[in-house]
Amino acid sequence: RVIWRPRARGPMVAGEAPPSAIRSIESQWVETPVGNVEVRFAVPAGQRPVALALMIHGMSPTPEIIWEWGFLIDPLRERKLAIVYPNLHSCDSTSPKLGSAEAVFRALEAIVAWALGQVDGGTSVPILVYGKSWGGARAIQFCSGLASGGGETPGGLHAAGLVLACPSTRMEDREARIAALSVPTLLAWARDDTVLPFEQAEPLHAELRARAAGATIFVPVEAGGHRIDQMAAGNEGLASKLQLWSDLALGPLANLRPSALPPPPLASSDGHSKVHADAD
Description:
With about 280 residues, the protein is an alpha/beta fold. It has nine helices and eight strands.
């Protein structure tokens, strides 16, 4: 059994970091094939980024959901990551209620290409994709689309890692899209989620583990509801993995085959799943 026990360098507090981190980043508008989209873009101070993180929010138009991933901005910048964070509600073609999955893919492709041009002038920086709920489905579609050659950006874009927080799995060709993913994937879900119940996690986890390539780490947590910031605030293991995901995805998990990972959680006597030893 191959087990990693990463530790975050400092605590991340839900409800406090997102507003301050987001307020410190100037809003910009990026032209895409489907319309202009508002983005927040941050880079590590005075350093060339080792990777670019793309954050994709959930369905609600409220600021706390749009910028829910904001608690990770400062920790990721400390780890030398650039972050591009689009507000997909800012464009009708990409909004969760009005837009199409294809339009979102094209917009995200253009946004990532723009961000890479800001930090590297090209496409050599690895891309890590983070998606929550509705954004989780878009993250799967984006990564699988890039993997299948669906991108049109000159030189091509390729994801190097994926983080899914209680993702929606309502998408066309779900099984084929998940099977096409070959990147290390972190899946997080709270048992007290009342929006997308925890029972939906196991089928998705099984599909991810059945991929021909790409390691999967599943971190179930007891509390946090349908909020990744609250899930991380209440679980040190999840907070640590989110903060250190670039190190894992670009390092020991990069070429690990699914068969080399520990088996899935076993059911305990109270009906709950036991967390992987590597999810402490």
